[in-house]
Amino acid sequence: MRIAILGSHGIPARYGGFETFAEQLAVRLVERGHKVTVFCEKAERARKRYKGVELRHIPAYRLGPLSTIFYDAACLWQARFSFDVVYMLGYGSSALCWLPRLWGAQTSRKMPPPRPDFGSPVCWVRNGRAVLADLVPTG
Length: 139
Fold this sequence. Notes:
The chain has 4 helices and 6 strands. By secondary structure, it is α/β, with parallel strands linked by helices.
């Protein structure tokens, strides 16, 4: 099976929890015979493979709060043709998870639970994206 993992800074893990999860999942799926590609933020001296996992580097432009959405949208656009499963980490671009589905890929996502501080508008947006993320993916 051809699997894409998106929504992290990339592997090997050097940043945080999603990167550690992406690395562990990708390497274990490759060990089970799957073809796995992890989408990574473009780096100067970027590797093409890591422990059997293909690394696809996408530019991440610094646009403040919109950076994540544009980066994830670029990754989803690149992943639209080549994969049986697109696994999205996080909920920043959950509204865009339908893109790979147009080309027949199953989509799934992993995200942290919504935060309990419902009083601020930022949390309303964050928790709203979490709800949307539950509605859009297929798996």
